[in-house]
Design brief:
Elements (H helix, E strand, L loop, with lengths): L7 H8 L21 E6 L8 E7 L2 E7 L12 H5 L14 E4 L2 E4 L2 H19 L4 E5 L5 H15 L4 E3 L6 H11 L16 E5 L3 H4 L1 H12 L3 E5 L12 E3 L6 H14 L5 H7 E2 L1 H7 L5 H8 L3 H13 L3 E5 L1 H4 L4 H14 L9 E4 L18 E2 L3 E2 L3 H11 L13 H9 L5 E5 L3 H4 L3 H10 L2 E6 L11 E4 L8 E4 L4 E5 L12 H11 L11 H12 L11 H7 L2 E2 L26 E2 L18 E6 L15 H4 L6 E4 L1 H6 L7 E5 L4 E8 L7 E5 L28 E7 L5 H6 L20
Parallel strand pairs: 6-7, 6-16, 8-9, 8-12, 9-10, 11-22, 12-13, 16-17, 17-18, 23-27, 24-26
Antiparallel strand pairs: 1-2, 2-3, 4-5, 4-18, 14-15, 19-20, 20-21, 23-28, 25-26, 25-28
Bound molecules: ligand MGD (2 copies), iron/sulfur cluster and molybdenum atom.
């Protein structure tokens, strides 16, 4: 049954003028009203989870104030944090459940929408089997919601298939850290960063994507620390780097193996640390032997002298912190890349001591907490493995079921979409995920959703994916339900409820609980409050790696956050992991892992000679559902542009502002050129926060890392040409927008302005 999405016109007619597109200038509302109360909580956007205070008046969020005491950001916020409060009152908020009719959506009563959803899920499971239904979760949800969702999939639906949008984000890092340390969390609290003598940032655009971390980087430099940055683009922080390594997209592994080669060749490895705290060094040393600086330079395009220098700086530093993000991880060898960085950290002994450590910069708001308690396809609460008999027994006991009733591991996020496309999975319940914009190869995603038999969405805005839904259940913003998240540091923090959801929208966990009840599983979901969900989560995680047993909301408030593991009420929490080199493996050793070079899944050739890489800009967030609706943010970077080096531009007769068609083996889109000197001349960059004709994911490919199953967003092959005329979307929108702010502009230093 083909099910075309509703057209924008139809949607606008049915559901107001703001849908799917930001009105000119966007939604702006200033906080003129004095506050009745201030609610100390956190920014809902990125993994920094900055503390802030929401101004509340008459059950509405009307503005914000800084929260100076919260230690991570001390009142500083980036542009998104300053504008986040505009969502609660936004005219696009979904205020009722929506049900699809022949003509479009109509508002429905909750009983009708929930009954229908539960009935369709049950019918499909009866007809095709339990695993014909899949669940998508998200890492912007509070930890309680993600826990509830894992239990819902396995107990209420009994399906194997639940996975989450962190599969597009944190899983290469997580897989590698588990292989090396048996734990998936930053090894250090951010207070270690300013103490480092050398900071190595690889594939992390800290200025735009972790803006508050910039302040830690500058403090490190103020203390005399040296900064090394590896990125195909000169991002804001690299302007102040002591050494910049402009590597070719997808070649990090060669760079990192080259660095380790130099360390070992020059006898700079930390023998004592290697001997006392690690296993597997010899094999890794052997594997990097061929990667002398000349070969590493050939593969990466980075000068051999720079590789030599970086290796010496890192190895000779007493304290070194290595920071990485998706540039390193969004590759079909993302896990190998992270392992190679960890190998370098272990070989130089920069793990488990003050001012040293390697760490991923977590992406989504609850990117950390969202990957700990069971919404991953192979995971049970507490970062336990779904295939570990002891873990199954423990969690089954807490849930009041027999261990045999727990389904086994299911498919990952992209694999679920592949199975929908293949007609094997017939229904999807998706919360906090916008796959039409965020999954690679979006023509494929759209084709899959056109054939799905039932799609249910829980969201507070009508996302592009919701256009394909049979039912849209109007859910809640972060500040509309109490809970916890875990920040980039591994600090568990308290999300306080500021207001109720508006109109007939409902709290996410109420919606999930009501569906469970309608599926006949009410007894397993007796929760009257988030606190009761959290208390069960504490039990379920008890004794696991991510042990929350000793964490309570009150303790979080007293300590301004608690770092897990925290196994007992008296335990203060664990800011630094791998203390004195002790890993989470039973033998306490850290593991070296041999890494092997593989080419990208979409190699450049004569037909597609240019590298395409994708990522972010400071003012937009993820698939843009939230930030494309906020006026002050849209103004900063109104439309996606394709970054091109002047030399590449000139070769194609392209000038700044010209329309450029970018074509890959999947499709093409036409955007305006942003001609900048801050990118490699063999590479173009497109931010991915927009849908349809502006969507970078029309171009990307579905190759996955074989272990983490992360898509290779950072490496595609493309060709470019000057377009004769503007694309359809631009014609409809009117004259081109003024030039966006060039990247490489000074990085924000925070501040609430
Ligand atoms: N403003 C803003 N901030 C965000 C987000 C957002 O959407 N907007 N999202 C949050 C989330 S979920 C995430 S995951 C993080 C992402 O944070 P980052 O990973 O820092 O951001 P990206 O832009 O995805 O990519 C980072 C850098 O990788 C570089 N890169 C591209 N290819 C390669 C390569 O092959 N090797 C290397 N070494 N680098 C490469 C890009 O040029 C880019 O500068 O940001 C979080 N913060
Ligand atoms: N080309 C390319 N593609 C990428 C990336 C890239 O670098 N390049 N990055 C990838 C990465 S790192 C990520 S993390 C993904 C993100 O991709 P997605 O997770 O699909 O993006 P979001 O915009 O977070 O979509 C979340 C949806 O959930 C809703 N939502 C947010 N919070 C809540 C909540 O509390 N409750 C409910 N009910 N709904 C909520 C939002 O309104 C939005 O519609 O994109 C990936 N896609
Ligand atoms: S850095 Fe910006 S987006 Fe991230 S949590 Fe802080 S204020 Fe929010
Ligand atoms: Mo992410």
């Amino acid at each position: 049954m083909a099910k075309p999405p509703l057209s924008p016109d139809e949607l606008a007619r049915r559901y107001g003028p703001h849908l799917n597109e930001t009105p000119a200038g966007g939604w702006q509302q200033e906080s003129r009203h004095p506050a009745e109360r201030l609610v100390k909580t956190h920014c809902c956007f990125c993994g920094q989870q900055c503390g802030l205070q929401l101004k509340v008046r008459e059950n509405r969020v009307t503005g914000f104030e800084p929260w100076e005491e919260f230690p991570f950001n001390k009142g500083m916020l980036c542009p998104k944090g300053v504008k986040r409060y505009l969502q609660n009152e936004h005219p696009d908020r979904l205020l009722d459940p929506l049900m699809r009719t022949e003509q479009g959506f109509r508002a429905a009563a909750w009983d009708e929408a929930l009954d229908f959803t539960a009935r369709r899920l049950r019918e499909i499971q009866e007809k095709y089997g339990k695993d014909a239904v899949a669940v998508y979760g998200g890492a912007s949800l509070t930890t309680e919601k993600t826990y509830l969702l894992g239990k819902f999939a396995r107990v209420a639906l009994g399906t194997r298939h639940i996975d989450y949008n962190g599969r597009l984000c944190m899983v290469s890092a997580g897989t590698a850290y588990k292989l090396a340390f048996n734990v998936d969390r930053s090894l250090i609290p951010w207070s270690e960063i300013p103490k480092a003598q050398v900071l190595f940032a690889i594939g992390a655009n800290i200025g735009d994507c972790a803006p508050i971390t910039t302040d830690y980087v500058w403090r490190c430099r103020d203390n005399g620390g040296r900064l090394i940055v590896a990125d195909p683009r000169m991002t804001p922080i690299s302007r102040n780097a002591d050494l910049f390594l402009p590597l070719r997209p997808g070649t990090d592994l060669a760079l990192l193996m080259g660095l380790l080669h130099v360390v070992i060749r020059d006898g700079l490895e930390n023998r004592e640390f290697i001997q006392s705290h690690t296993t597997g060094f010899e094999e890794v040393a052997e594997s990097v032997r061929p990667y002398d600086p000349r070969r590493a330079a050939e593969e990466t395009g980075v000068a051999p002298e720079s590789i030599e220098k970086a290796a010496r700086w890192i190895a000779r530093a007493e304290r070194c912190v290595m920071l990485h993000a998706r540039g390193l991880e969004h590759q079909s060898k993302g896990v190998e890349n992270v392992l190679a960085l960890i190998n370098l950290a272990l070989a130089t002994g920069h793990v488990g001591k003050e001012g040293s450590g390697c760490t991923m910069i977590t992406g989504q708001g609850n990117g950390q907490g969202g990957r700990e308690h069971g919404q991953k396809c192979d995971q049970l609460p507490g970062q336990r493995s779904l295939t570990d008999p002891a873990a199954r027994e423990h969690v089954a006991r807490v849930w009041g079921i027999a261990p045999e009733e727990l389904p086994g591991p299911g498919l990952t996020a992209q694999e679920i979409m592949n199975a929908i496309h293949a007609g094997e999975i017939k229904a999807l319940l998706s919360i906090c995920f916008n796959p039409v914009v965020s999954l690679p190869d979006s023509n494929f995603t759209r084709a899959a959703l056109e054939r799905i038999e039932f799609l249910g969405i829980i969201d507070f805005f009508l996302s592009e994916t919701a256009h394909y839904a049979d039912v849209v259940l109007a859910g809640s913003l972060q500040e509309e339900e109490e809970g916890v998240t875990a920040s980039v540091e591994g600090r568990v923090i308290h999300i306080r409820k500021a207001v109720d959801p508006p109109g007939n929208a409902r709290q996410d966990s109420w919606i999930v609980g009501e569906l469970a009840r309608r599926l006949g599983k009410a007894q397993y979901f007796p929760f009257q409050s988030t606190r009761e969900i959290f208390d069960e989560l504490r039990e379920a995680s008890r004794g696991g790696i991510a042990d929350y047993y000793g964490i309570t909301y009150e303790k979080i408030d007293r300590q301004l956050g608690v770092f897990w593991p925290c196994p007992s009420p008296e335990h203060p929490g664990t800011p630094r992991l791998i203390e004195n080199g002790r890993s989470f493996f039973p033998d306490g050793k850290c593991r070296f892992n041999v890494t092997q070079w593989r080419p990208s899944g979409d190699p450049v050739d004569e037909q597609f000679p240019v590298y395409l890489t994708t990522g972010r800009v400071v003012s937009q967030y993820l698939s843009g559902t939230q930030t494309r609706r906020i006026g002050g943010l849209v103004a900063i970077y109104p439309e996606p542009r394709v970054e091109i080096h002047p030399r590449l531009a000139e070769a194609h007769g392209i000038r700044d502002g010209d329309w450029v068609t970018v074509t890959t083996r999947r499709g093409e889109i036409t955007l305006q050129a942003l001609v900048v000197r801050t990118i490699r001349p063999d590479t173009v960059f497109i931010p991915y926060h927009w849908p349809d004709g502006r969507s970078a994911n029309r171009l990307t490919h579905r190759t996955l890392d074989p272990r983490s199953k992360i898509p290779e967003y950072k490496v595609s092959a493309c060709r470019i040409r000057k377009a004769e005329r503007p694309p359809e979307w631009a014609v409809q929108k009117g004259p081109p927008q003024p030039r966006a702010q060039a990247p490489g502009a000074p990085a924000p230093r925070g501040g609430t302005g």
